[in-house]
Amino acid sequence: MFESSLKQLGDALRAKKISSVELTQLYLDKISKLNPELNAFITVNPDISLAQARDADARMAAGKGEALTGIPIAQKDIFCSKGWLTTCGSKMLHNFVSPYDAHVIQQFNNAGAINIGKTNMDEFAMGSSNETSHYGTVKNPWNTENVPGGSSGGTAAAVAARLCAAATGTDTGGSIRQPAALCGISGLKPTYGVCSRFGMIAFASSLDQAGPMGRSAEDLALLLNTMAGFDERDSTSLQRDKEDYTRDLDKPLNGLRIGLPKEFFAEGLSNDVAQAVEAAIGEYKKLGATVVDISLPNSKLSVPVYYVLAPAEASSNLSRFDGVRYGYRASEYDDLADMYEKSRAQGFGEEVKRRIMIGTYVLSHGYYDAYYLQAQKIRRLIAQDFTEAYKHCDIIMGPTAPSTAFKFGEKGDDPVQMYLSDIYTIAVNLAGLPGMSIPCGFGDNDMPVGLQIIGNYFDEARMLNAAHQYQLATDWHNRAPQGL
User: Radius of gyration over alpha carbons of the chain, in Å?
Assistant: First the structure.
């Protein structure tokens, strides 16, 4: 069952070859066996999961099953889930049990999916290696000495190790795509506003977006069918007609124009990643696609722009964590101001505090115009580069990350080098475009390589089609870590 697609699991459940309770228990047993080493999950609650599974079995017995009914899905611990510990990977929320469901969680509940647990993550989604979590590092299932990527590293590791059928992640600057690439799975960041941010603990509100993570493009399409949808509680949620993201999966790729940005294949890209990506592009040519050389001249500025804008928004969003209403509170303090200071100093980790300070600095009097306002202007230029590129191509392809998964501690003392792990993904968030990563091979150290596919606004179905056709012709997405 662990190697089955979501569609195959759904068919087996509806045919009564296995019950949801049995399937859920299989995954719970595997989590119990492997999670002590991988640390992919922060919270597992068998009582809640099995109760949902019993409800799903009753639902299917009544003939009301949907595509994901009865299937165990892991949820990144950034989504508020009623009755579940929801920590965002931080000491600040170590005791917070959510009293309500995020919209994305509601959508899965409505579909009858099973919440199999809450996955580990970089604290408040700030990180590219899952080394900043208060609950410890997540290990990459392909090599436990290597990072899984971040911030959705727990989700990526859980899917790669077959601890869940599929899972959710969030992407602020590459936090779905980069860990998907480093763990050899598929992950998609939708167009900004397609999935509601209600109940998703905010990092940078103009950049954050929920998205699916799974083994294949077909799985992602089924997940996105459930996750996407308008939510009036989120002012950035887009009111659009419901889409079926599986509708174009089987279309041939004849005539598809693939844009290759020269900036994505320049200095900084490791040779083994470049070779795997170039081989994938060659496969697309065999499938009938054509290649067009394009340029995204301002993409080189995406990292500095991001690390002005994202910390600025984070400094505002994280001001709510003050030790008063919920979350961590210092045990000893002299007065209210002292309680604020000690609670935040003790409750936040080093990376979170670094970004709060950067954000507060760039928003302060005398620096707002020089930094924040200039970054917003360059953000518009980055988006315009994509608009111009799509006059000449249908989708854009390139590497997801500049290297395969690196060793723990390798970049911990150099924040700038860590930030450059997202150099190919950040521009997509700044422009609000959809992007995805799919496995396309292995590097010199036998670690997975990801191919990034970037689409125009609301072009997720075309991206999924391109990914699915590639996965029909290759088997990289079916490779699994050995010994699990």
Answer: 21
